[in-house]
Amino acid sequence: MPMESEGQLKGSCTHSDHLVKKHKIEGTLFLNDSPFQLERIQALMRDVGSSSVPQITDILKDEKNFPCAINRSVGEKSTSQTLFSIVMDLKRGFAKVKMGRPTERGEAFELRP
């Protein structure tokens, strides 16, 4: 979802688990906490004031509202977990992918065209 922002964050897009923007066709929200996650990541990005890959990678470790956080985990209130995280730098043409939760061990790799 495009961020409404100026400065370094202008043009940044964020994404949570599922579609949250209103569309002509109404559907059910698969995960009720998706809007919270989207608002949270955008607030954290505004606080940081930059959209660098290392800073966004750190933001993806956030556990506010755990287990239904940006860094999601199975728990009493959650039956799903973060499968992977991806941070793309479209200007420089690469993406960093981390398999599994960002705070746990797992494969990490870079994508380049």
Radius of gyration: 14 Å
Shape: globular
User: Main sheet: which strands, in order across?
Assistant: 1-2-3
> Which class best fits the helix and strand makeup?
alpha+beta
Helical percent range?
10-25%
Give me the strand/helix succession.
Answer: HHEEE
Work out the number of β strands: 3
Q: Which regions have little confidence, pLDDT < 50, spanning 5+ residues?
A: none
InterPro entries: Peptidase_C45_hydrolase
Protein name: Peptidase C45 hydrolase domain-containing protein
Domain Peptidase C45 hydrolase: 16-103
Organism: Cyphellophora attinorum
Write the topology of this structure.
Blueprint: H1 34-48, H2 53-59, E1 84-89, E2 94-99, E3 108-111
Antiparallel strand pairs: 1-2, 2-3
List key phrases describing it.
Peptidase_C45_hydrolase; 113 residues; Peptidase C45 hydrolase domain-containing protein; alpha+beta; globular
Entry summary:
The chain contains 2 helices and 3 strands. By secondary structure, it is an alpha+beta fold. It has a domain at 7-82.
Description:
- This protein is of the alpha+beta class.
- The chain has a domain at 7-82.
- Helices cover 19% and strands 14% of the residues.
- It contains two helices and three strands; from the N terminus they run H-H-E-E-E.
- It has helices at residues 34-48, 53-59; strands at residues 84-89, 94-99, 108-111.
- A three-stranded antiparallel β-sheet has the order 1-2-3, covered by helices on one side.
- The chain starts with 33 loop residues before the first helix and ends with a strand.
